[in-house]
Amino acid sequence: MRKWLSWILCLALLIGGSVSFLFRGNYIYERALTPHAAQASEFTQCDSSSAVVADGEFTYIDSYYYYHDCDNYHFLKQDDASSRGGYAPLHGNMTQVRDLDDLSSKTIYYLTRSSNDKKQKTTEYRNTDHYSAGEYRVEVFERR
Fold first, then answer.
1. Residue 117 burial class via C-beta count within 10 angstroms: exposed 0-12, middle 13-18, buried 19 and up
2. DSSP alpha helices (H): ranges in the chain?
């Protein structure tokens, strides 16, 4: 009897989660928001002359689906990514850049979360435009 109750409970949780996903879509419960990575990706272009740079590991992973075919998709972090926890796969990853000036692209689309208000300092690029999509902000930098 216990075995059947366990199966019924698992099935009920699976169905409940699926129904919740059907109505809510992709939802981050710990931040109480629906991510807008898809909308933010519409403001960017990623090719040999343009790079998309996420402001950190979380934004990089959250938006990866929309840039997985892009060879010029990076994340910005001064220190090494942690070798433990959820960001461990990014430790030692070649997509990490420590400074926007390290890139050679003509245009950089800097993907940041609205809660991150720190401005990027760069000597090689100038900020020419910005776009907003939900919690995301896309800063456009052009090479000087």
1. exposed
2. 2-24, 37-41, 57-63
- List, edge to edge, every strand of the sheet that includes 107-113: 96-97, 73-76, 50-54, 107-113, 136-143, 125-133
pLDDT in tens, 83-136: 888 889 899 889 999 999 999 999 999 999 876 666 788 899 999 999 999 889
* Residue 109 CB contacts under 8 Å (≥ 6 apart), including other chains: 43, 44, 45, 46, 50, 51, 52, 53, 138, 139, 140, 141
Burial class for 5, CB neighbours closer than 10 Å (0-12, 13-18, 19+): exposed
Is the overall model pTM greater than 0.90, yes or no? no
36-64 average pLDDT score: 92
